[in-house]
């Protein structure tokens, strides 16, 4: 994958991606990383490491909670799951995000057309 | 906890990498490459861990631990510096906390050692219009009995009253006795008696004929020479026989100055004072009360209950309104003492806090010199991205670690320090508990934190001033120190010098005040005059006229006795005030303050020759005039009185009349005619002129004087013993004390000794601290200016030039501090004049000699580093970094 240029994630975007990934049930850190990569067709690449501070932040905000579990490899791993607050936050943020994407899209597209 | 947090993260990361590796292998990578790729995908593991740790709630603790470890490493590295700092801080903090411990025992805790938590003290205030007979802030016996018998919330309520009784016999004299209710031991729960027992309950029933006394250990040792067979012995108190039933280690009653030598049943009041028996008079409020509450009642509930009982009692005494206050027995809650508390705190903790401040300034100076040496380290840390807050915190942590170590030492010292402090200055053991309690620990902690933060913060403020790049370049700034930076250090030295000068001036004034008692000349003879005080007469006993006649004739026959005389009061025993209403037939306005009116002393004619008080004009009264019943009383007045009423005239033959202070009451018909004028002396209070004063003739037959003054020549001991013998021969029950007037004065001086010793110790400590401060600052300045000195020497400066250079720069703040200290002493002189009686607080000698001595000592402290600087080899110092 070194030939790909990873998109840097906007502040707050990663949080939302994590919350969205967890909507289908508890996952451990690696699972979340893989899921983000897969659902975004490998376009959004993160250093897997940067996931953990985000997880820590979300947990402190009580949007997710975690407990120890056993992974597919029979290793102890920490499993994260959405809390009701996290679910509400995700719904609210998704709406906001979509409005923002539309707005940014319009801003970015118009000047391009004029330049051409 | 934070350790566990770290373990969790490690495990989670390891698990993540294992998963990714497995995925990679599944994608067909060889195992070694798979793990490597997994690591790459993860990114910088340590950076992630670091980020997370910084955000963890335990992060501050984690880094605090680092800071503390770092501080301890620094302490270990600069061992001598750290030892100096810790010693300085420990001295300052331990002294302060020890003093607080004393104040705590005295003021903040009840004066009982066993179960202080349930003690209660009851204070009564009465208002309203009723016929009060006697009041001393206490309550009457019927009121006490009512409270004791009806209060549900109390398990015991005891009453006591301190009084003076006379002890007859070979060891006769006046003793402090507690008239106590026999259940007092239930409330105070004192240590078990050394011999015998305390009072038994039935000994406090009125009409019980048994007269019993419990003697304190110290009285047992001094008055009964520790006789083991003292139990059952009969002693005469106020000329009444009492049986000793016990010897107790301490008979202190709660409150200051209540160290009784005896406990007697309070029902004995009537027998001890037959003329003035107010034992069960409801209008005589003479008893102090203290009790124990039942554990399931709170102080408020006790107070409410007692107030309700008092209200019912008020209904029976028309016009009276009682307001009761119930406290936990701590002196600070005593309504009378509460107002004094700020003063007590200021006086006791003032000096120690001043000393702590000095110590703190010193530590700041020392840390400052170190922080300057650490300038580069801090600059490196800043440039590597350390947060300034984090750095300040680290420096404060260092200060706190230092003061924390001192606090630990302090807690060790304070276990026995305050008792030792008390013991070194007081002749008797502390009457209150001195073991440190939570208040002392909290105080110690607060003082340590404040000191640590102050000591750590001041140098850290300085550390951030230099530009990072400049300090990194190293030696560039080291040619000479910037004026702004040395200003802080110099002003610290000035503050130290000023404060220690203030303390030393106080010590000198205090020493002078004390010395005055040993070379005191009140204007009359003191060394060759025995003051014979008939304690039984002072206590109310009236001897027959023949007693005085017998004594006078027999004492006069004792070899060495020159003259004898009687007086209503002997010198310094008090003041009998009068009110002059009329002078030479003209009314005079009543003065606002009774102390402005003339004082009177009733004396026999020989009083003047006995004490060697000379007459300026006229004559003294004759023996015949002593007992004459003439309506015109001949008097001798003092010069000050002559000045007051007959300025510029000869007062002989003039008359004045006395009267009441209330103008509506007519003046007395008796006229006083001046027959002589005597020199002014100081016979009312030590170190104070008597002011207007007159002597009137004393008729021993009628006045029953309590004092006889005996002028002796040569050794005073033999006549003193002979007088005791003669008095015992005439009346074996007469209690008396025989001392020279001079020894009374000296005892006053002795009493000042503890305070003076304490003051001197504080002054010397302050001086030492200030000198260390001066030395530290100058040494540091020299080390900073080594390159400059090298250049100067290379350019031809002589050794003496270098010494002068260092001396001048080092002495400047000292001189500034001395000037400030003199100013401070002068501005406090009014206050000092009130403390140091008879000493001029603006005494030019003190205000010059002390600063000069201090300056000399400071020059000595500067001299050492200055010589070191002068001895430097210019080549080495130029290379010095």
Hey, roughly how much beta strand do the residues of chain A contain? 5-15%
For the largest sheet of chain A, list the strands in their spatial order.
Answer: 1-3-2
The percent range for helix content of chain A is 40-55%
Largest sheet of chain A: 3 strands, antiparallel
Description:
The complex is a heterodimer of chains A (116) and B (881). Chain A is α+β, with helices and mostly antiparallel strands. Chain A has a single domain (13-115), classed as Winged helix-like DNA-binding domain superfamily/Winged helix DNA-binding domain (Arc Repressor Mutant, subunit A, Orthogonal Bundle), CATH 1.10.10.10. Helices cover 53% and strands 14% of the residues of chain A. Chain A is globular. The two termini of chain A are 33 Å apart. In chain B, the strands form 4 sheets. In chain B, strands 1, 3, 4, 5, 6, 7, 8, 9, 11 and 12 form a 10-stranded mixed beta sheet that branches. In chain B, strands 15, 16, 17, 18, 19, 20, 21, 22 and 23 form a 9-stranded mixed beta sheet that branches. Chain B is 52% helix and 16% strand. Residues 473-481 of chain B have low confidence and may be disordered. By secondary structure, chain B is α+β, with helices and mostly antiparallel strands. Chain B is globular. Chain B has 31 helices and 25 strands. In chain B, a hairpin with a 5-residue loop joins strand 3 and strand 4 (173-180). The relative contact order of chain B is 0.10.
């Amino acid at each position: 994958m070194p030939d790909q240029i990873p998109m840097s994630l906007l502040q707050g975007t990663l949080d939302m991606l994590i919350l969205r990934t967890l909507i289908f049930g508890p996952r451990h850190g690696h699972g979340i990383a893989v899921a983000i990569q897969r659902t975004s067709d490998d376009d959004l690449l993160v250093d897997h490491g940067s996931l953990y501070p985000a997880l820590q932040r979300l947990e402190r905000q009580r949007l997710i909670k975690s407990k120890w579990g056993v992974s597919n490899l029979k290793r102890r791993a920490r499993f994260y799951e959405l809390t009701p607050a996290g679910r509400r936050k995700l719904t609210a943020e998704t709406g906001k995000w979509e409005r923002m994407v539309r707005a940014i899209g319009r801003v970015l597209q118009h000047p391009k057309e004029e330049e051409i | 906890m934070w350790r566990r947090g770290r373990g969790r993260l490690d495990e989670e990361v390891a698990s993540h990498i294992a998963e990714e590796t497995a995925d990679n292998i599944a994608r067909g990578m060889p195992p070694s490459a798979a793990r490597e790729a997994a690591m790459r995908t993860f990114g910088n593991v340590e950076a992630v861990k670091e980020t997370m740790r910084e955000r963890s709630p335990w992060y501050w603790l984690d880094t605090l631990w680092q800071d503390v470890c770092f501080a301890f490493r620094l302490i270990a590295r600069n061992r001598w510096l750290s030892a100096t700092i810790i010693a300085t801080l420990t001295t300052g903090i331990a002294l302060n906390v020890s003093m607080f411990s004393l104040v705590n025992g005295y003021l903040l805790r009840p004066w009982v050692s066993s179960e202080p938590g349930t003690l209660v003290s009851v204070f009564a205030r009465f208002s309203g219009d009723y016929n009060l007979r006697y009041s001393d802030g206490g309550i009457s016996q019927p009121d006490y009995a009512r409270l004791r018998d009806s209060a549900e919330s109390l398990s015991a309520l005891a009453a006591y009253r301190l009084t003076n009784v006379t002890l007859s016999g070979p060891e006769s004299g006046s003793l402090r006795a507690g008239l106590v209710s026999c259940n007092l031991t239930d409330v105070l729960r004192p240590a078990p008696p050394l011999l015998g027992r305390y009072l038994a309950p039935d000994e406090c029933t009125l009409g019980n004929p048994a007269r019993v006394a419990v003697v304190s250990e110290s009285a047992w040792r001094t008055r009964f020479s520790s006789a083991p067979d003292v139990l059952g012995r009969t002693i005469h108190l106020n000329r009444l026989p009492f049986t000793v039933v016990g010897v107790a280690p301490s008979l202190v009653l709660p409150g200051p100055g209540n160290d009784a030598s005896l406990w007697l049943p309070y029902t004995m009041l009537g027998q001890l004072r037959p003329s003035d028996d107010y034992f069960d008079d409801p209008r005589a409020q003479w008893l102090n009360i203290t009790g124990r509450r039942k554990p399931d009642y709170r102080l408020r509930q006790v107070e409410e209950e007692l107030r309700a009982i008092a209200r019912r009692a008020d209904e029976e005494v028309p016009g009276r309104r009682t307001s009761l206050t119930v406290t936990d027995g701590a002196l600070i809650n005593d309504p009378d003492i509460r107002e004094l508390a700020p003063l007590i705190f200021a006086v006791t903790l003032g000096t120690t806090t001043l000393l702590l401040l000095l110590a703190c300034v010193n530590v700041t100076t020392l840390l400052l010199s170190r922080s300057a040496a650490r300038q580069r380290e801090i600059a490196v840390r800043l440039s590597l991205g350390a947060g300034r807050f984090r750095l300040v915190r680290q420096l404060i942590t260092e200060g706190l670690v230092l003061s924390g170590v001192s606090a630990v030492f302090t807690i060790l010292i304070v276990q026995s320090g305050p008792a030792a402090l008390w013991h070194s200055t007081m002749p008797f053991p502390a009457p209150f508990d001195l073991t440190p309690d939570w208040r002392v620990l909290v105080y110690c902690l607060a003082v340590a934190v404040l000191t640590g933060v102050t000591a750590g913060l001041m140098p850290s403020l300085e550390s951030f001033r230099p530009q990072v790049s400049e300090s990194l370049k190293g030696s560039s700034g080291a040619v000479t120190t910037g004026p702004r930076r040395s200003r802080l250090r110099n002003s610290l030295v000035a503050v130290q010098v000023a404060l220690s000068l203030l303390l030393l001036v106080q010590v000198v004034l205090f020493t002078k005040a004390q010395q005055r008692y040993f070379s005191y000349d009140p204007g009359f003879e003191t060394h060759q005059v025995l003051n014979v005080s008939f304690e039984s007469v002072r206590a109310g006993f009236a001897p027959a006229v023949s007693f005085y006649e017998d004594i006078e004739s027999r004492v006069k026959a004792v070899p060495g006795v020159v003259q004898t005389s009687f007086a209503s009061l002997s010198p310094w025993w008090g003041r009998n005030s009068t009110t002059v209403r009329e002078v030479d037939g003209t009314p005079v306005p009543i003065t606002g303050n009774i102390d402005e009116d003339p004082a009177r002393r009733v004396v026999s004619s020989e009083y003047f020759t006995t004490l060697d008080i000379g007459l300026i004009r006229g004559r003294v009264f004759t023996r015949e005039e002593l007992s004459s019943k003439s309506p015109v009383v001949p008097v001798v007045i003092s010069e000050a009185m002559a000045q007051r009423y007959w300025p510029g005239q000869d007062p002989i033959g003039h008359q004045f009349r006395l009267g009441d202070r209330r103008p509506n009451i007519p003046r007395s018909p008796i006229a006083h005619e001046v027959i002589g004028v005597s020199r002014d002396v100081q016979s009312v209070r030590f170190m104070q002129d008597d002011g207007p004063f007159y002597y009137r003739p004393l008729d021993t037959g009628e006045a029953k004087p309590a004092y006889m003054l005996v002028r002796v020549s040569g050794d005073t001991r033999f006549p003193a013993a002979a007088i005791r013998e003669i008095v015992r021969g005439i009346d074996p029950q007469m209690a008396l004390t025989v001392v020279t007037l001079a020894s009374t004065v000296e005892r006053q001086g002795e009493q000042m000794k503890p305070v003076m010793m304490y003051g001197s110790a504080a002054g010397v400590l302050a001086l030492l601290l200030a000198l260390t401060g001066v030395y530290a600052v100058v040494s540091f300045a020299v080390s900073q200016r080594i390159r400059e000195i090298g250049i100067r020497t290379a350019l031809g400066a002589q050794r003496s030039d270098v010494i002068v250079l260092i001396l001048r720069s080092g002495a400047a703040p000292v001189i500034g501090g001395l000037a400030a200290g003199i100013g401070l002493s002068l501005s406090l002189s009014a206050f000092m004049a009130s403390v140091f009686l008879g000493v001029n607080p603006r005494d030019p000698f003190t205000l010059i000699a002390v600063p000069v001595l201090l300056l000399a000592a400071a020059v000595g402290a500067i001299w050492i580093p200055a010589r070191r600087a002068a001895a430097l080899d210019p080549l080495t110092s130029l290379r010095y970094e």
